[in-house]
Specification:
The complex is a heterodimer.
Chain A: E1 3-7, E2 10-12, E3 18-25, E4 34-39, E5 45-51, E6 58-60, E7 68-73, E8 78-83, E9 92-98, E10 102-103, E11 107-111
Parallel strand pairs in A: 2-11
Antiparallel strand pairs in A: 1-3, 3-8, 4-5, 4-9, 5-6, 7-8, 9-10, 9-11
Chain B: E1 4-7, E2 10-13, E3 19-25, E4 33-38, E5 45-49, E6 53-54, E7 62-67, E8 70-75, E9 84-90, E10 97-98, E11 102-106
Classes of the chains: A mainly beta, B mainly beta.
């Protein structure tokens, strides 16, 4: 059974950093692209970043370029999202997804002073 | 960026109805179109991939179609468990873009 379990969310002040993790199981992690998708409270879904199966290429939405870094450790079957210089508009539930066919339960990130 | 214009934003319907939700792509996306269902407090669930293919475990009353740059999700014989928000997603090119969502609710 495919499982994606996010962790690392919480309340953080504007300008600070946070690192999300997503532990994957039930499939060969190194064979799949992975992505982060977020959803602000009461809003729609918004793609954040993607990474190829090897980790050799990464893609970001413009609003997070230069602030967020997606990475993976295939030996640990874990996906990461390093979020720096956080802004109030980054407040959202962040979902880890395996090319959007499987999704984690989501982790809440609140950016507020 | 590719814009996905989704309509309607809200869709009141009765149990047993046939309903259709549409997304229009601002550029060619081929069949790189997916549909998701999201219930309150839950993660999105993949319903349709490749514009017309039913994802595993999805009831056969759901179907996807394409006409040019218009992509549609149709639900035949609506059931209470289908009440949710539905989103389309284009994954033809980065940035990936979602439609704004359609809230399907009981009339």
């Amino acid at each position: 059974e495919v499982q994606l379990v996010e962790s690392g969310g919480g309340l953080v002040q504007p300008g600070r950093s946070l690192k999300l993790s997503c532990a994957a199981s039930g499939f060969t992690f190194s064979n799949y692209y992975m992505a982060w998708v977020r959803q602000a409270p009461t809003k729609g879904l918004e793609w954040v970043a993607s990474i190829t199966n090897s980790g050799g290429s990464t893609y970001y939405r413009d609003s997070v370029k230069g602030r967020f870094t997606i990475s993976r450790d295939n030996a640990k079957s874990t996906l990461y999202l390093q979020m720096d210089s956080l802004r109030s508009e980054d407040t959202a539930t962040y979902y880890c997804t395996r090319v959007t066919d499987y999704w984690g339960q989501g982790v809440m990130v609140t950016v507020s002073s | 960026d590719i814009q996905m214009t989704q309509s309607p934003s809200s869709l009141p319907a009765s149990l047993g109805d046939r309903v259709t939700i549409t997304c229009r792509a601002s550029q060619d996306i081929g069949n790189y179109l997916r549909w998701f269902q999201q219930k309150p407090g839950k993660s999105p669930r993949l319903m349709i991939y490749g514009a017309t293919n039913l994802a595993a475990g999805v009831p056969s009353r759901f179907s996807g179609s394409r006409s040019g740059s218009d992509y549609s999700l149709t639900i035949n014989s609506l059931e209470s468990e289908d009440m949710a928000i539905y989103y389309c997603l284009q994954h033809n090119e980065y940035p990936l873009t979602f439609g704004s969502g359609t809230k399907l609710e009981i009339k």
